[in-house]
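User: Just a sanity check before I run the rest of the batch. Below are the structure tokens for the first item. I only need the designed sequence back.
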């Protein structure tokens, strides 16, 4: 009888454990996977270093660090005599050398050759001590960089330029403190996240649990995997097609290979930042709805009163025109201009085409420089 009682209790315990597992929140398994992907980051970086040893490492311009904070540092690329200053807000994903991949595919070099004083805000990899920085802290970092430029005797107001989520962060800051900048250039930066307007947006919010932990860093390789699951046509099939179409063009194939090497340079993101981006921006669309708060201030499109130039790649599923135009339409009249760019072969990922594409360099970047020159007086219409 005692043996049967023990067996009965053990069976009941297993039933309770199975029931608990079935009723556990979905983020429990997600957090377990998240922990494992921290090691995947290390492996992918090692793989990137191996690929880079075959001559595919970046060839960056010389720069110096003039300021830093817990999660950021500010690069200065020189050109002190330039009449206009630009602050590039890098995306908080992977390394920022995508802006300066090679001399012939470098947006930074293009700006330097156009007599601009270039600075770049680089986000440092998140660590357990700095993994809980959110949108407030990232906006404050941009503010600190602008203050540093003013303290160094640079031009009173720089232009902000941002690509992808770097552009989203730049737009948030400009809506929060429009008087501190001269103008804003957005390159493939998603700003509006309405349901059913972007399959990528809809898939991401279905993959990431709402109760995502903010306490620990978020592995970059996990974000890469989620992005591939959310849009396999963008992150898998179109890359293969681009590689195949680049085979007959040595230069296009080289750029493609260098970008593939860059994609392996994973860094951890702030857990709080990822949670706020997914919840506040992707799921709730707070930025475009005017419900986002930075500090105690509400941020909305109508507050973004600085001249703005937005470039939309019509072949980009990550930041399609539908994720940009509703926000632009809600801005003050005559303050924004949108240029459509059709994408091109030899850029690996269309989302990066505006930064590394040869056609973009020939046809789009001259318009960007011309627009910056036209705003040199500050405060004008777009």
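Assistant: Here's the designed sequence for the first item:
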């Amino acid at each position: 009888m005692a043996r049967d009682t023990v067996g009965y209790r053990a069976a009941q315990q297993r039933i309770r454990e199975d029931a608990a597992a079935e009723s556990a929140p979905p983020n429990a398994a997600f957090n377990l996977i998240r922990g494992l992907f921290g090691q995947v980051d290390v492996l992918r970086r090692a793989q990137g270093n191996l690929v880079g040893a075959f001559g595919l490492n970046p060839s960056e311009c010389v720069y110096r660090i003039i300021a830093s904070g817990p999660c950021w540092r500010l690069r200065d690329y020189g050109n002190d005599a330039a009449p206009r200053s630009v602050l590039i807000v890098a995306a908080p994903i992977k390394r920022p050398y995508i802006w300066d991949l090679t001399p012939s595919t470098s947006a930074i070099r293009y700006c330097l050759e156009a007599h601009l004083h270039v600075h770049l805000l680089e986000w440092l990899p998140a660590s357990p001590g700095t993994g809980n920085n959110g949108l407030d802290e990232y906006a404050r970092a941009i503010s600190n960089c602008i203050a540093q430029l003013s303290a160094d005797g640079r031009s009173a107001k720089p232009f902000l330029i941002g690509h992808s989520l770097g552009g989203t962060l730049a737009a948030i800051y400009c809506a929060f403190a429009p008087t501190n900048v001269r103008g804003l250039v957005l390159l493939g930066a998603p700003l509006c996240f309405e349901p059913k307007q972007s399959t990528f947006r809809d898939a991401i919010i279905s993959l990431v649990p709402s109760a995502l932990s903010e306490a620990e860093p978020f592995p970059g390789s996990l974000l890469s995997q989620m992005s591939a699951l959310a849009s396999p046509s963008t992150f898998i099939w179109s890359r293969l097609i681009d590689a195949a179409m680049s085979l007959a063009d040595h230069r296009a194939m080289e750029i493609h290979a260098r970008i593939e090497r860059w994609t392996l340079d994973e860094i951890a993101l702030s857990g709080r930042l990822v949670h706020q981006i997914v919840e506040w921006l992707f799921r709730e669309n707070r930025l475009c709805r005017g419900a986002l708060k930075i500090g105690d201030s509400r941020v909305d499109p109508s507050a973004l009163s600085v001249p703005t130039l937005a470039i939309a790649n019509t072949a980009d599923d990550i930041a399609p025109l539908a994720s940009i135009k509703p926000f632009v339409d809600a801005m003050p009249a005559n303050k924004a201009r949108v240029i459509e760019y059709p994408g091109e072969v030899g850029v690996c990922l269309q989302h990066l085409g505006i930064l590394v594409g040869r056609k973009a360099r020939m046809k789009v970047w001259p318009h960007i420089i011309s627009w910056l020159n036209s705003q040199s007086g500050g405060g004008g219409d777009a």
